[in-house]
Automatic annotation (TrEMBL), chain A:
2Fe-2S ferredoxin-type domain residues: 54-130
InterPro entries registered for this protein in UniProt: 2Fe-2S-bd, 2Fe-2S-bd_dom_sf, 2Fe-2S_ferredoxin-like_sf, 2Fe-2S_ferredoxin-type, 2Fe2S_fd_BS, Beta-grasp_dom_sf, Diverse_Oxidoreductases, TAT_signal
Keyword Metal-binding set for record: yes
Organism: Archangium violaceum Cb vi76
The protein, known as: Oxidoreductase
PROSITE patterns documented for this protein: 2FE2S_FER_1, 2FE2S_FER_2, TAT
Amino acid sequence: MAPPDDDSVPKPLLPQLSRRAFFKGAGASALSATLAPSAHAADPSPPVLGPEPAPLTLSINGRTVTVQADPATTLAELVRNHLGLTGTKIGCDRGACSACTVWLDGEVAASCMTLAFDARGRKVTTIEGLAKGEALHPVQRAFVENDAMQCGFCTPGMVMSCAALVDRNPKCTLDDVKQAVSGHLCRCGTYPNVFKATLAAAQGGGKAKGNT
Amino acid sequence: MQDVKDTSDPRASNKPGGEQQQQQAGGPPQPPQPNPGPSRQQALPYGIVGAGLKEVTRRVPEDEPPPLPENAKLKSIGKPVSRLDGIEKVTGKARYTFDVQLPGMLWAKWVASPHPHARIKSIDTSAAERYPGVRAIHIPERILSTAQLRDPKAEQGNRYPTVRYAGQPVAAVAADTPRAAEAAVKLIKVEYEPLPHVSQLEEAMKENAPRVFPGPTEQPATAGGGGAPPGLPQKGNVRGPDNKPRGMGPRGDVNKGLSESEVVIEAEYRTQVQTHVPMEPHGLVADWKDDGLTLYASTQFVTSVREDAAELFDLPKSKVRVISDFTGGGFGAKYGIGNYGLLAIHLSRKAGAPVRMILDRREEHVSGGNRPNSIQRLKLGAKRDGSLVALQVQAYGTGGVAGGAGVGFCHSTLYECPNVLVEQYDVFTNAGPCAAFRAPGQVQGIFALEQTIDELAERLKMDPLALRGKLDVSGTDDCLARAQERKVGAERAGWNKRRPAGSDKGPIKRGLGFAQSQWLYLVQPSTACEVRVSGDGSVEAFSSTQDIGTGTRTILAQVVAEEFGLRAEDIGSHIGDSRYPMGPASGGSRVTSSLTPAARNAAYRCARELAARLAPVFKANAENIVFADGKVMVKGKAGSAMPFREAVKKAGFEEISQRAERRDDYEGYLFKTPDMALSRHGIGGVQFAEVAVDTETGIVKVERVVAVHDCGRPINPKLTESQIYGGVIQGVSYALYEERHLDAASGQQLNANVDQYKILGSRETPRIEVILLEQLGAQSSTDARGVAEPANVATAAAVANAFYNATGKRIRTLPMTPANVLAALRG
Ligand code: FES
Ligand code: FES
């Protein structure tokens, strides 16, 4: 899920950004998780932003978009409320359920714990950008075939994590899948089928085999 | 449904879904005669497929379709069809209420009381009103989802509703942006006069405890169950006893029975408060316009949302439209408009713009509902041969400011016992209201009852499975199913290899246990469905029912497809809109049992009408037109086959449409209202659990669960299996981890989020093996029943019985956290 809690490398705190996550009292590990990706996006002398909205240009699902957003806007809020990409869900808004999982440069990230401004210069992929046109990602197809969903509210996040796993490690094992979705909360209890679907997608080598 | 209770008192029947008509006294009412009107005597298959199907003859309404054979002989029903809306769900296109974004939509936020009990002296909204972007403010004049004072005058003179739990909404703001709404609520100044409060069950039971309500109360039921019967005595915070579970009074003479018993088992069990935590929180988007109100609702019952809104805002139902495309889980708690909906509608009316009011995770935990806790004292008397003589249960639980903390009906219905007395008490506390939660009451009740039965078996040196076989003899369909389930399950689980309790010598101890599940077979008689065929060959089905994750769209399509010889994917399956014919509540495990017969009846009629239109095209009699494999043909003449669409186009009509209702079960019901009918048969299952208990750390792992269930005719085994996984997982989560912690001093929930409220995740998911019976009960045109609740009923009890088998110690307190486990091991 989020990058490991690694405090060995000092990270600039970017105090000029209004850190919503900080003021909302997020736990220390969650906070450093947020800060980790911002380190390499930070400009040596960034202009002071906020609290008013400022223009922001991002690459989302292969499109370049420019929006006005206040610097406290999370990436989850931005894609949902500014861009209408509501496939990304918010289940807890504090880094604890992974419903909001997106990819940043192909790596999974909790978009509720990522400030939109910290996604500048990175390629953002949301659930809407996972399929290539009509062609579903093998994990998406396997989720449907193996019924790895019930209410479906956690599903976009689950799919993003499982698709990242299968892309990175097509030889993934059951333990790998469990690890990949260990931060995901599914109240409907779809885990057994999430495991089945992800392994089916991996074993299908990009061509998921279903059971129907 | 928790208990099917006497709610004939009009004070308790303001929720249409929960009304049940029954006489206050005088025992069970006479069962009504099913299906008046023309009928035929019909032979129907009856029994468990693969375990001796036979034929029964029943009186069937004349216009019902011919009976279906077993699933193996069908093309669409009973097949593991993939969820029709699966692609929308995996691509992010599925639009939940959470995702509704209307032009000009405002964002609402409420002020939550920090006090668990207070009178509100004043509310000053002036600063909030001036905050940029604020468009409307509303102060609620009433609070929903709580017990109501029997005598409203008891709090006369209060300007605002009394605060009875920390987190109760006090005022709400609608603003242009979420940020503005959040900022503005902080500017609302509320002057509270704090009152003494009590948030712990046993504290609240004391005579001198602070009173949550200044007088006796009534708790309206919802269609999802919960609630409590009207007119019960109330002393302080303790309301009850309710001793008529399932409309049945006490049976026999318990004291006499106990004195005649040769063995008496006595024990106390405790269960915790569990919160629902649907991943999509409660919420509603309200769009008030002069010509009508549109509500987008995350709900388990579209109809209940419309009824609440119409009633509370004095609107004709024709002016209220409710849309629910997708609901992100509910588990019993999402009925009606709730306080969030009430506020959203007021704000929308004031602002003249759509308003989105969706709870955040903290608000959801605190005010969205919960499963009440329980303290249950059981006394079970039996003969040496195992037969039960007497069962006495006294149960106290708190659902916070709402009633409905009973422990189910299993004591009267699961096992043969001549003397039964169950007294269930609601204890009010200053805590968020409970709500129906996946088999309300029954989960708690079975946890204690099934351990008690195991204890009896141990005492009598009988095999727990064999003892069940001796006691579970009501002869109802669910009883017959369980006999088969015990057999198949025991084989799969390896019951014959089960070792004596506490056999492992090392610190990690493994064990195998099992428990039985039972739930009601419920039907919503008001269910209807419309099926249309358009001139181009499109087939569509319409029902206002919603999908909370069970796959309603898919099963509806499967049933309709069967009649037209089409695939489920060919059917337009439309649900989640109050403009469609009334569909069932997604609660009480009643969607499939209610909707599929209505859908099949409508599809059958529509297909017969279509056959009549096609007869001239095929130059044949309508009775000889058959639909199969996507084609139309004349019976016995394969050469006449024509693709379905092509044939329909040739018939040259614009549209035909048929609507049909859910007819009564052929055998009739125990009782019936327009909203709910209860069969004398039930549904259920048995579950076997394997656990590993680390006796040094107190950590329990559930390694494997074998879940064997019946649901009548499974319409879609793949989706059914998913629901059983879900029930087992929620059950393990409840057994091992979940617990709401309230701080006694402040009345605040300490773990109102998902990082501290522990729920089972991927790493703790056991290996789950599902075995599904196909049981034909010869009751309706599809013979389908529900499965959601029974899948959750037995799990905690099975885990607890496995814990005993592992350690030789009883765990009588949930959840099985290290502290509770170590205490049990010491005990
Ligand atoms: S919403 Fe981002 S982790 Fe829960
Ligand atoms: S499918 Fe409902 S929360 Fe996962």
